Amino acid sequence: MGAIGHGDPGRRTSVNKRIRGFQEFLLKQNAFALAVGVVIGAAVGRVVSGLVEDLIMPVVGLVLPAGEWRNAAFALPRGNAIKYGDLLGRFLDFFIVALVVYFVSKALLEKPAPPPPDTKTCPECLEVVPAAARRCRACTAALR
Q1: pTM higher than 0.85, yes or no?
Q2: Which of 22-31, 35-44, 52-61, 63-72 has the lowest mean pLDDT?
Q3: Contact by Cβ (8 Å): 74, 81
Q4: Which one, out of 13, 26, 34, 130, has a CA that is 20 to 30 A from the CA of 53?
Q5: Which position has the higher pLDDT, 17 or 59?
Q6: What are the residues whose beta carbons fall under 8 Å from the beta carbon of 133, sequence distance 6 or more?
Q7: What is the mean pLDDT of residues 95-99?
Q8: Which of the four pLDDT bands, split at 50, 70 and 90, describes residue 70?
Q9: Domain ranges for the chain
Q10: Are 119 and 131 in contact (CB under 8 A)?
Q11: Does domain 10-109 have CATH number 1.10.1200.120?
């Protein structure tokens, strides 16, 4: 047996191969990008929820007669209640988060319009030629 800390070289190679394989998996399968997206999405969700609770809901609360509209509920027998105010608040939170995600993704993912093609088609033989050409290279017809 070898000393502590000196393992089998074949085993170290196997571990290194597994680590490289895991790195390749993360990069090829976009698992790392997905994980980053989930973390950022959770953070954006908390920011938007704070925005809704601290800025929008107080304004909505002024408009509604009860003030604390998230606590609005229909009373049921035996002390139960249907908390429709909380449900409406959650729908509003979701709607605002969805709007923020839509506008951010639209701004980040929008692609510019493709440039106009640098070619034109010969009217005689339908050959594709450069836009600056004055004669067709296939049939030698004059181009406009």
Answers
A1: no
A2: 63-72
A3: yes
A4: 34
A5: 17
A6: 120, 143
A7: 79
A8: confident
A9: 10-109, 116-144
A10: yes
A11: yes
For 134, the token pair is 């004055």
Q: How confident is the model at residue 1 (pLDDT cuts 50, 70, 90)?
A: very low
Contact 70, 86 (CB under 8 A): yes
Tokens of residue 106, six digits: 């639209």
Distance CA 49, CA 52 (A): 5
Please answer whether residues 135 and 142 qualify as being in contact, where contact means their C-beta atoms are separated by less than 8 angstroms.
Answer: yes
Q: Any idea what the Cα angle at residue 27 is, between residues 21 and 32, rounded to 5°?
A: 110
C-alpha separations of 83 from 14, 25, 33, 66, 73 in Å: 58, 46, 38, 14, 4
Backbone phi and psi for residue 10, each to the nearest 5 degrees, phi listed first? -65, -35
The residues near 13 (Cβ < 8 Å, ≥ 6 apart) are none
